[in-house]
Input
Amino acid sequence: MPARVRWRRALVFSALLASAGVGAQTMRVADLADLSIEELGNIQITSVSRHAERLSDAPASVFVITAEDIRRSGATSLPEALRIAPNLEVARVNANSYSISARGFNNTAGNKLLVLIDGRAVYTPLFSGVFWDVQDVVLEDVERIEVISGPGATLWGVNAVNGVINVITRRSADGGFASARAGNEGRSYNLRHGGALRESGGSFRIYGKFFDVFNTTTANGDTARDGWEKGQLGFRTDWGTTANGFTLQGDAYRGLEDRTTPTDPNPGKTHASGGNLLGRWNGDLAAGDHLQVQVYFDNTERDIPGAFAERLNTYDVEFLYSLKPTENNAITWGGGHRVAYDYVTNGTVAFLPPNVKLHWTNLFAQDEITLKENWRLTLGSKFENNYYTGTEFLPSVRLAWKPEPQQLVWGAVSRAVRAPSRIDRDFFTGPPVQFAGGPDFVSEVVKVFEVGYRAQPSPRASYSISLFHNIYDKLRSVEPAAGGAFVIANKIEGTGDGVEAWGSYQATRNWRLSAGTLTLRQRLKLKPDSADTVFGVAAEGNDPKLQWTLRSSLDLTDAEFDVSVRHVSALPNPGVPAYTAVDARCAWRVRRDLELSVVGQNLFDPGHPEFGAEPGRSEIARGAYVKLRWTF
Output
């Protein structure tokens, strides 16, 4: 019996069995979410200014994905949870690959978005992007995800060009739970246990998780051979408080991925493994000053048989110091140093030299100046030295005005860069077609102008709107070279404009509605001296001009019912048709400690592509699963 048929029958059987036993149970009815609309505006976030501030006061286009958002979305992975943020483009390429960006340039090798998990940068210096197949957390452990669309280079450094994603997990001692999920697209198991360290006064949690994602199919019904399985273990310990305490945490994982096409000349599976260890200390000092010191080690290994293999070891240390020298000035400054040892075993593609030692050193300062009672000016700058181009200057200016306590008007001007990666300088492939990294490739540059408005007109409603204009220069192009070869250069320029808007409305005590939209218009062009006739501006990304989402979350007498509708307009090159996906989740509290949920995904469409070119691209099929979660 085919695996898909077995899982479909198991899904139906489980749902029927659960419905027979749940009907007489009564779920505890609570408010729709842990936080009201007003309390959501008071969430303390840290990604915009590198210190705690209310979301309603942050002068940036920032959306917060809460733990309740994730739980009620039915998301099964971190990339799927990121679909909740209306200011992100999230496209599922196949069973094991995603393309995620902010404000355009969406690409499987996207390089203009900085991603952090508990303060640890997870990008790879191979292409200055993220391998989304290995970025994983226990979603039940996530406290919030702060998503900033727009540059964050002044505080976070190079590559924070079009956005920053900061995944923040809960402190330890959250108790334990076990969950199992099975459906027609995959299965997963999670186990976590936490408690107090009585002798030391701290707390801990440990976890283990495993998932298996089944193969997708192409439009003609062929198996895409892109199945994906991965196991991960980890721990976290905390002493003291968030403001005055110490955290030690770590993770280790190992996964296997099928090759992506049936005609792949290199048989076998892609192997991915790694681990990390992070320590962070926070302390309040005299006169209200605050110091944070963080260090981490990260190891990643990836082996694509016949293509290449990589082993990357990263060491990072940084400090952050906050003080208030006068009543009207709040200064945050700090610095850090990162070293990465990258070892590559070359195959059909090559990085020359194969082994390099990369380094990044930075120093930054930011001053928040209270001009008048309702006006705040933020001036900041970072100097960051990297292996390829030396020192980059990353300034920003932000102005915020609060005409009323529940309103914020803000504007910003910033400069950010995307520093060269190994693929820009060290990459080689061929024959028959030969590509080479550009020895003179320099940083890509963007100048960003933003304005925004955020308001809470009533305790039951809030909304935010932002407009941006980006001016890009020295973007990557592929230029012809002697002998029919091609070399990577900096000969694309252009602009990007867009509008981001979202809002929430508490229709009743137990019913919340949310909506969001993103419009984007890019005008990229080759510079007059460019001869790029092969890839052109299409290589920079493939973005929709419009996307929007609607979400409804309803608490019934004995159940939770959630529906989301997501629309993405057509992609231009390669062409991908527009699609609208409807997802639904229904959850029952079987007992106080046992929850059963049934989730349907892409309910009214048998399948659609989200990214990639015909004929080999994957169809994202209609899916459903049953999940059982036991807390203890």
Remarks:
- The longest strand covers residues 486-508.
